[in-house]
């Protein structure tokens, strides 16, 4: 039976890397005999907003809920639509309404890519950021008071529910359990944020009791960011709140040379709703329209999607192909962010050809 994939390219380079993501998936589907059926949607982009006055149609939930997965590019074009409107009107709705409470973001220094951190080689940086994805600092609790006066106040509360915290911690501990080093690092800030973050630490300590074989440590987010740069080899599975996970999942990939290769899986582990796969990066207005965006973040997200759908071998083959093409280091093929002179298409085609065998 066909696996039904909803495709939403979004804005900017989202529309440029998406075709390469699909090209790689089609090559993989052919090689492994997987039946993938793609359905493209125009909504979830700023151009859709300019035409319809909203990011999504009213029945988007009904339209998408039956799909096996969502494959997203990137959304946001601040000159057309303010970011908080475009993002809260699309991506953040998907994450929340489809209860994609895990945002899994691998971070790996690939062969052939130079880390900006001196002396780091493949193997030195290889960890996962597990980001809480439906609550925390990204809450809709708050508001404005005394607007337009000198007494103006804006409040946005951080929300941590026991269920919300425990379920992301459990996922992260389970993931650490599968890794050779069996190590989990918690991102906190319980010295300064005195209610929610001590609560986070308490829940980590409680969960750790059920995983005696996992080595657990924690760092405040300020020194944790420093340690990402100074000692990236310390990390294996890093778990953080929505905002901390967001920051760490740009910083980690930057340490691996470019955020253009970083993938993410927004997962509803129970499978009650479709999960969403998208690169970590955004729509990159500064390079959009030039055909030079790195498509690897999109392609690797496709690999995560196949693994999620039960095709681990096929997903691994996609990542192997990415590594092989990067290792070859052909500057005519590679994009600029990884030191080449090639295009989104040249890199995407090279990876698809490699997958094809
Ligand atoms: P960004 O990730 O779009 O770009 C940051 C920098 O990284 C830019 O210099 C860009 O050129 C570069 N870059 C990003 N992806 C690249 C790629 N594939 N290849 C080569 N270089 C790449 O972040 P931003 O500039 O903060 O945001 C731009 C827009 O995207 C905003 O509207 C923002 O809200 C949105 N955004 C969306 C998502 C998402 O859809 N998940 C994520 C982040 C930002
Ligand atoms: C990401 C992005 C989003 C986030 C933005 C665009 C709302 O930065 O997916 O990392 O903060 O989650
Ligand atoms: Mn981000």
Automatic annotation (TrEMBL):
Its cofactor is Mg(2+); Mn(2+). This is D-malate dehydrogenase (decarboxylating). NCBIfam families: PRK08194.1, TTC. It comes from Vreelandella lionensis. Keywords: Manganese, Metal-binding, NAD, Oxidoreductase. Residues 4-351 form the Isopropylmalate dehydrogenase-like domain. It catalyses: (R)-malate + NAD(+) = pyruvate + CO2 + NADH. InterPro entries: ICDH/IPMDH, IsoCit/isopropylmalate_DH_CS, IsoPropMal-DH-like_dom, TTC_DH. Its EC number is 1.1.1.83. The keyword Metal-binding applies. Belongs to the isocitrate and isopropylmalate dehydrogenases family. One of its GO terms (molecular function) is tartrate dehydrogenase activity. SUPFAM superfamilies: Isocitrate/Isopropylmalate dehydrogenase-like. It comes from the Bacteria.
